[in-house]
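ARCHIVE ENTRY
Sequence with per-residue tokens
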Amino acid sequence: MSQDKYIKRVSDNKLFRAMAVVALIIIVGLILATFITGITGSKYFMGFLILSIIVPALIYVMLWIGRILYNSSPNNQTDTTDSNDETNVKE
């Protein structure tokens, strides 16, 4: 349940969406640079190839650690209320 709250919090935040777009642009740029340097035989091919593997893995690890830290915070362990509570609905 707390993972659902984490995903909802991340997907609703515009900053996280902007960071996701930037991460996608960086990953696509690295893949294109790797492809171009591979075709042209540049000396930077191995560097781009290594970065094309490491950067997405680092992004995944950062997201994984963020989810673990969010789920282990005291605010999320004691919250048992349901967000679909109908006590505030006026008739």
Notes: The chain has one domain: 2-72. Residues 2-72 form one domain.
